[in-house]
Amino acid sequence: MSPARIVVRGAHRAFGGRQVLRGLDLDIDAGEFLAVIGRSGTGKSTLLRLLAQLDRPDAGRIEAGGRCAMAFQAPHLLPWVTVEQNVGLGLPKKGRAQAVAGALADVDLAGWAKAWPLTLSGGQAQRASLARALVRRPELVLLDEPFGALDALTRLEMQSLVARLAAESGWTVVMVTHDVGEALRLADRVVVLDEGRVAMQVPVPGRRPRPIGFPGEAELSRILLERLGVPAGP
Ligand SMILES: Nc1ncnc2c1ncn2[C@@H]1O[C@H](COP(=O)(O)OP(=O)(O)OP(=O)(O)O)[C@@H](O)[C@H]1O
């Protein structure tokens, strides 16, 4: 599967007279893992929806070809069908069972195919949601605060899982997160959105994923938090 390259040029988007994106420019390389951070309401989810072609800019150009899958903070599983039916939803019948079984195995949910979504833990539900994304063999994966609702340990497990899947599949990934540490450990580059534009870009050196406290993490974190206007410590 060839990963997708993305070009955004001068993207504008307003809602009811409120200008959210104001001439945003962004280039994302094929196979790159990009993290997007920014204060609440700066247009991060709006950007993801434009990349997914669920919405269109009022002005400007977006090139984001290829098969795209999206995962959100809430897993959005249908409660009235089993986990495997959720994952296989909309896939052609031919090859579906095998593809679904493979995707569930990839997210360590092989034993939960026949389970009902409401019986899953938060982390398992999020993994099922990831399986639903990866069974579509995407080239571009858009993640909107995917671990935001999980406890700290499950969050770390999910970060490792996404890092592994991204490395194995060569996806281009755009992940919105509020967690600067998560962004720095998983991504090749972190961009800060502010006032509807890219206000700062920080390439993260070294191979991803990086361990907690990797050399340079504290300094990069300080730079990003300062740009976000958040004090880095008490
Ligand atoms: N479909 C829509 N209709 C009306 N307003 C919208 C719509 N989508 C987004 N907005 C508004 O655009 C602004 C940016 O929203 P967006 O969800 O992109 O921000 P965000 O950076 O992802 O925020 P958060 O970090 O809080 O999730 C908000 O003020 C939001 O209310």
UniProtKB/TrEMBL annotation:
Q: Which GO terms describe its molecular function?
A: ATP binding; ATP hydrolysis activity
Keywords in alphabetical order: ATP-binding, Cell membrane, Membrane, Nucleotide-binding, Translocase, Transport
Pfam families, per this entry?
ABC_tran
The domain of life for this entry's organism is Bacteria
Question: Which SUPFAM superfamilies has this protein been placed in?
Answer: P-loop containing nucleoside triphosphate hydrolases
According to the record, the segments passing through the membrane are none
> Matching InterPro entries, A to Z?
AAA+_ATPase, ABC_transporter-like_ATP-bd, ABC_transporter-like_CS, ABC_transporter_ATP-bind, P-loop_NTPase
SMART domains reported for this sequence: AAA (SM00382)
Q: Show where the ABC transporter domain sits.
A: 6-220
**Protein name, per record:** Aliphatic sulfonate ABC transporter ATP-binding protein
Organism, per UniProt?
A: Sediminivirga luteola
Gene name as annotated: ssuB
